Amino acid sequence: MSVKRLSATSLYKALLLVLISIFSFSGKLNAQDGEKLFKANCAACHTITDKKLVGPGLQGINDKREKEWLHKWIKNSQELIASGDADAIAVFEENGKVVMPPQPLSDAEIDAVLDYIANPPADQAPKQEASEEGTTAAQPQGEDNSFLILGIIIVVLIILVGLLRSTQVSLAKVVKEKTGDEEIVINETWGDSIRGLVSKNKGWVALFIAIMVILGAKDVWDALLSIGVHEGYKPEQPIKFSHKIHAGLDKIDCNYCHSSARHSKTSGIPSLNVCMNCHKFIDGTDGKTFEYNGKTYPMPEEIEKIYKHLDYNKETGKYGDNPTPVKWVKVHNLPDHAYFNHSQHVVAGKQKCQKCHGPVEEMDVVYQHAPLTMGWCINCHRETAVADKGNGYYEEFHARLTDELKEKYLKDGKLTVDEIGGLECAKCHY
Amino acid sequence: MKTQKKYWKGLEELHNDPEFVENAGKEFAEYVPVDEFVGDKKTLEDSSTSRRDFLKFLGFSVTAASLAACETPVTKAIPYVIKPEEIVPGMANYYASTYYDGNDYASVLVKTREGRPIKIEGNKLSKISQGGVNARINASVLSLYDGNRLKNPLKGGNKSSFEEVDKEIKSKLSDIASKGGKVRLLTHSIISPSTKQLIEEFGNAFGAAEGNFKHVQYDAVSYSAMLTANRKSFGKQVIPSYYFDKAKVIVSLSADFLANWISPIQYAADYAKTRKPENKWMSKHYQVESNMSLTGSNADVRIPVKPSEYGAFLVELANEVAAKTGGQKLPAAKSAYEKSVKKIAHDLVEAKGHSIVLSGINDENIQLLVNKINSDLGNYNHTIDLNKPVYLKQSITAEVEALVYELEKGHVDAVFIQGVNPLYSLPKKLADKFKAGLAKAKLSVSFATYNDETAQACQYVTPDNHYLESWNDAMPVLGEYSLTQPTISPLFKTRQFQESLMTWAGISGTYHDYIQKYWENNLFSTQTESILFNDFWNKKLHDGVYSNNATEVRRTEAPQEEIEAELTEDYTADYSAAAKKAASVKGGNWEMELYTATAIGDGTLANNPWLQELPDPVTKITWDNYITMNPEDAKEQGYNIYYGQEKPATLASVSVNGITIEKIPVIALPGQKRGTVGLALGYGKRVGAMEEPTGVNAYPLLTDNFNNIQLSVEITNLNEEYPVAATQTHHTFMGRESIIKETDLATYKTGDKHHFNHQHTFTMGHEQVSLKEADLYKPFPIEEVGHRWGMVIDLNACIGCGACVTSCIAENNIPVVGKDEVRRSREMHWLRIDRYFSSIPEEAAKPQEERDNFIMDIPESENPSVVFQPIMCQHCNHAPCENVCPVAATSHSMEGLNMMAYNRCIGTRYCANNCPYKVRRFNWFNYQGNDKFTDINPSQDDLGRMVLNPDVVVRARGVIEKCSMCVQRIQEGKLTAKKEGRKVMDGEIQTACASVCPTNAITFGDVNDKETRVRKEAESDRSYHVLEEIGTQPNVWYQVKVRNVESNHSNNHHEA
To answer: What is the pLDDT of residues B773-825, one digit of tens each?
Structure first.
């Protein structure tokens, strides 16, 4: 019964959805669509403020120009200029004779865009960001507390032991005085009492020491193993660049900025000209703020840093002669004797960046997600199947396998990295 | 068939010297002074450091180290501000370019990483260098990062700026020009057509029309006699093209054409093509010489002859040939080599039109005789082509001498010196005059890259760029062009020589524009492939080379009537007079031939530590030049004939015409003609921060007409000892057989593998089984599974030049260890070239007339035959080293590689002890940081470290290292294939040694791929494994050396 009802409700819901979508597309376009259209078609050259990018800022454009004129201009500015329209020629001259390309928009769409420019909605992006903040995998921060509690417990215990001992000594004294029993030993000092305790409980003490030694040895061993392992390393960077905003919210592909990951052994930190592909336009002057590591910062300040490094003048749009590089702090440090190739893993191995780097799209400040130890590498090489389907190189490898090896390697249905020699020393060390 | 031939690496081994015998069994020959650093029992007891202290220190250091390691080191990652489009960090870029320094020429590919040139490879598109480079060109990339280069212009020896220097030079020049003063430009041979035109323009600006300007070309090692002889014979003052690939018989009179004669890379490549016994014919190579040269050691028949006898030998040969071909008869001369001459003449006439006779002696009479023999044989237009002149050497001695006298008389007002160092390389008398004359000039400018002798004597130095920072073009041979392009911005405040000339002559634009204009005006019209010049230019810049089929002689200084008389039978040259003069030469007690060493050449790169540490192919000595003397002579004169760590060489002084050079070590070299000595030019320069120069400068001993032969020399034993660093007897094979296999052509032609490439078998029970069946190892899947990287080395093609060794050094970050360490057998080279002398002791013991094929009265040590064998890790499938490593630092890969994990190695050196091939090297020091190596190791300063290959680890102290078969290149090649989803192509992956080999002696590839060249070579009849009988099953094959000798008895080559 319940199953049937469920399917019935979902059917209604689907119908409703279809209806809504039909309505929304067939009806008049509204400001929300205007925003979409603006971002898709206009934002590369114009802002909705009075700030000039390639073309002029469009704030108040509806008051300045006739609607009809705007329609003509947007559809084909060159035609309008050629027709001898004085306003059009003036605009063309004012903006350094940069031709505005004809926009393939319908009248309704243009109206929607103009509507959007006239009534820009309040920016909601930062709020969305904040609401997602809670789900971020934050670094463990409870260590300070636990130490405090441990300290308090230890102090209390020491006081307790002291109290108990003085009670015991005074009790013993009282008993000795009362009974006159010579055999009662009174431990005048701390040393005496400990020695007394030890001589009575030799077995327990030995056990206790043994346990302590074993635990201590384990701690030392763990500590030694963790030398050079910097899992969770989260250095502060010279620019508050948030991967969460760029890769998470804006959904920019990792390879867009880290383009060498597909070609080279290094993934490559993007040079500033890559940043400028977007940040020439997104300069943050409209007073935007952004969330970074739980705090809110003004956006222009950080973007200004890019301009400063590039010696770029925002007002004139010109680059100076004195650019300086950004000195980022390297997060993932492999020892020099280990050779790692990004393109091997990304292209040939078809691995996701997140496999080693963790949920970067959720990180404001990037931290080292994996231990990057040899054991960690090797484990993955043991488990991971080679992306051999449809790759001529591996087809040749399969063709050369003896029947015996074929059976051995392909027993589990996959050819692992280990089986093609991925655990051999000289694959990573040379 | 068994031969009684004995192979020996040095005289110690031949004579069973007791010290050699004692040390032969040790991997580490020298005594390790354990007592010195541990101390004996008493000192230990007396010392204040007790065991407890030791434990305390140990505990403290462990804690300190752990604490230090706990802190995360902050590493900065600094990306490009604006990334150049063509650079991807971590990926290498290759640019085609050209190397020419006045001595060596090659079209090359420059490998750059993140904008730094790190390696030179050959350009396979070049018809001249054919994808090969030599040791010097390989090492030239290190010189780019030499901190001793001039870093700014100098004025009077003090630091100056280009603005200041330019202003003063310009004003002085215009002053001189206005008064009609004489301006001279002294350069090495200029092969760049653009530069030639530029020099012409420069000359026009300074009175060339009035005869006030002259451009003089000067080559330290002169070929002037050859040029003038060709003018006299054929009316063409040119060096012809030699086609060794067409030569069936080659007779070389002391021309080291495989290492140091005109265009050795080209000749070696062509020569090797004729040395394959599988082909229809194999060339026969006679070498007549006094020194044991690299070329001589590769000859089929080598005849040791005194320099004073060269003339008579040639006259006799000319007459023998003329008698058979009907040529002009010359006044008879008698040499002591009648039988040899007859045999050579017979072979030459047999191969009429397909032979080459050549001589490296800078003596016009000798060169005229050579021309006559070649003409009589009809070699011109077949194997020797005068219509394709070679421009690599254009210096005419008379012109240089004229300049020196002009200078001396004070007739020259301004002199500019580029690319040469006359005060270092002129004969003593001329050098002194040059120095005095230089001081008289009103203006003297040097373009030197180092503050050398000549630069110090000049008023101004405007340092030239390194070639890797320069634009240039080149025409080494008529119609064959190549381009040089910069691969890095100038590191210092230097300026290209051409741009300096342009600045002073008021020619606007850059030299790059100038070359482009030259190519547009002169070369663009000679092709039809491209319609637009830009397209043409970009294509040629990409390829690095361009050839049109021009054959006419572009420039000749010969009189018109001589040009018309070219290539006719009526020579204008007087051969009879030449023959008389050549045959009448008399020698003194000692005769000396100055030569250019394989590693150092004319000395242009003598301050390069890679080259200094490259052992000479024949003597195996590093870091020095020396007098080579026959062992018998040396013994008679009381010189030490064995040399090693504890056995220094004896010093001697050499006097020629009143010029004496003191303190030169004497080296006993088998093969040196008795009564003669050799001494290498080009030494006597400082390397790195060393206080003392390495070796002595022998240029002052040249005769006035730049002849390298000294007929009367005095040699005095100074009875002083001097340590020399030879790799000669290091890492011996303990006299085991089956290391070298060689045979003669006739035996090879029988086709019976058993006769020349005996396969070992193993007796199991009553059966003879192949080595593969007698196997204790667990089967390991290598054959026919995945890849199996293998290498085949053709001993017939290997000429021992050492290009592979330097290429390996550059590719694998091999440290320079210096003379003292080499002396202790601690050189780090992963790839060495073993040189074996061979002789037949039993034959030598017989009286002369009973010896088989012995014609001349020469004891074995006087003329042994030589085999070169490159040895690197053999990557044994059953590797003895792997079993003994206590920490599994060395293990085997599925692809047949013997892997070495440096960080796992704890330095027990068990593996090195257990390696039958002695290819493992131990890092005794931290060469990158230890004070001992500061002077010589380039990677101790930031600049020198720029040459390191970032894909290969720099090894730490205390670990073993060895050849990895360039696993970084294998991995890179495999990755490219995987990314492109295809199998690895044959030839796509090349090891560093294989990629530069000028003779293609090394073939590398995947042996499991049935289609590869390496597979076919490995399966050839000539292929064998070194020490096959011990069952190591290496992945490196060698191919039996086949000598073109007619002896059917043994493999000895004394048949002539």
So the answer is: 777 777 676 777 788 999 999 999 999 999 999 999 999 999 999 888 888 88
**Per CATH, is B6-14+731-1043 categorized as 3.40.50.2300?**
no
Helix axes B224-234, B364-376, angle to 10 degrees: 50
Report pLDDT digits (tens) over B59-90. 888 777 766 655 656 888 888 888 888 888 88
In degrees to the nearest 10, what's the CA dihedral of B400, B401, B403, B406? 180
A101 touching chain B per CB within 8 A: no
Which residues of chain A from 198 to 227 reach within 8 Å of chain B, CB to CB?
A: 223-224, 226-227
- Tell me, rounded to whole angstroms, the distance of Cα B536 from its chain centroid: 34
pLDDT for residue B960 is more than 90: yes
Percent over 70 (pLDDT), chain B: 89
Is the domain defined by A31-121 classed in CATH 3.10.310.50?
no
Write out the CATH class of domain B224-389.
alpha beta
pTM of the model: 0.82
**Amino acid of residue B881:** C
pLDDT attached to residue B256: 92
With CB atoms and an 8 Å threshold, state whether B904 touches A425: yes
Distance CA B1035, CA B967 (A): 14
B45-73 in b/e form (b: 16+ CB < 10 A) is eeeeeeeeeeeeeeeeeeeeeeeeeeeee
B496 three-class SS: coil
CA–CA separation, B259 vs B251, rounded Å? 16
Kindly report the number of other CB atoms within 10 A of residue B646's CB atom. Answer: 13
What digits encode the pLDDT tens for the residues A109-136?
888 888 888 877 665 333 333 333 333 3
Q: Domain B586-726 is of which CATH architecture?
A: Beta Barrel (2.40)
More confident residue, B329 or B491: B491
Could you give the CA distance from residue B778 to residue B798 in angstroms, rounded to a whole number?
36
Count of beta carbons in the 10 Å neighbourhood of residue A212: 10
Tokens of B688: 């790195």
CATH 3.40.50.740 fits B154-219+395-547, yes or no: yes
Closest Cβ opposite residue A405 in set B73, B785, B903:
B785
B800: left (phi over 0), alpha (psi -120 to 50) or beta: left
State residue B8 phi and psi, 5-degree precision. Answer: -140, 140
pLDDT on residue B41: 64
Measured between CB atoms, which of A310, A330, A344 is closest to B75? A330
Domain parsing of chain B, residue ranges: 6-14+731-1043, 154-219+395-547, 224-389, 586-726
What is each CA distance from B1000 to A309, B178, B990, in whole angstroms? Answer: 51, 57, 12
List the Cα angle B496/B501/B502 in 5-degree steps: 95
Q: Give the pair of three-digit tokens for residue B993.
A: 């040694």
DSSP string, B692-712: SPBS---GGGS-TT---EEEE
Q: What is the phi/psi pair of residue B819, to 5°?
A: -60, -45
